[in-house]
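User: Design a sequence. Structure:
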């Protein structure tokens, strides 16, 4: 049932008007008032708070004038002060003449890295991938390898001296939509 669009029920009974229900006074009855009684305690507390605030403002109003009228404290004469000592920090000159020695360990150069981007049964598929790599600006090779499963055509890049160089080229290939390249510690066949 749709309660939002439902029409309200109309009351069949009409309110009855009784003679004594009006707010006018009847003979011998006290008048009925609509006003609520005034809470005098709240009024007294509010007046006390306002009076306290006014007293506070009056008491601090003369403070700034008293401070302005006070004579300023004069500094002692210069002949009573001790002489300014020479700068005792010499680190600026010392740092300028220092040399920093850093002990950098040499990186161990491992075997050369090769990156293989594909291995295919058909040489035409390997050449297609090699052309796609050439379009990315890198040079690759197609190598035929005889394995236990038969003849395979591998598309490889490298050799790279460090893995970082190989990773740089792999990211370049990924930006050119060539995925699946793996970096291996291989020797050139």
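Assistant: Done.
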């Amino acid at each position: 049932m749709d309660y939002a669009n439902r029409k309200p029920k109309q009351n069949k009974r009409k309110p009855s008007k009784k003679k004594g229900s009006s707010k006018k006074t009847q003979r011998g009855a006290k008048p009925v008032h609509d006003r609520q009684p005034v809470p005098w305690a709240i009024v007294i507390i509010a007046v006390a708070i306002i009076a306290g605030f006014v007293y506070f403002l009056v008491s601090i109003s003369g403070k700034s004038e008293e401070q302005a009228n006070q004579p300023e404290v004069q500094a002692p004469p210069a002949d009573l002060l001790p002489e300014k000592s020479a700068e005792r920090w010499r680190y600026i000159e010392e740092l300028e003449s220092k040399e920093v020695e850093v002990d950098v360990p040499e990186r161990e150069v491992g075997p050369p890295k090769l990156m293989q981007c594909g291995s295919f049964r058909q040489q035409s598929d390997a050449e297609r991938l090699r052309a796609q790599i050439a379009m990315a600006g890198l040079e690759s090779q197609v190598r035929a390898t005889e394995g236990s499963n038969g003849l395979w055509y591998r598309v490889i890049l490298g050799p790279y001296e460090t893995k970082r160089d190989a990773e740089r080229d792999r990211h370049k290939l990924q930006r050119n939509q060539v995925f699946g390249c793996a970096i291996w510690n291989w020797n050139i066949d």
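The radius of gyration is 49 Å. The longest helix spans residues 40-60.
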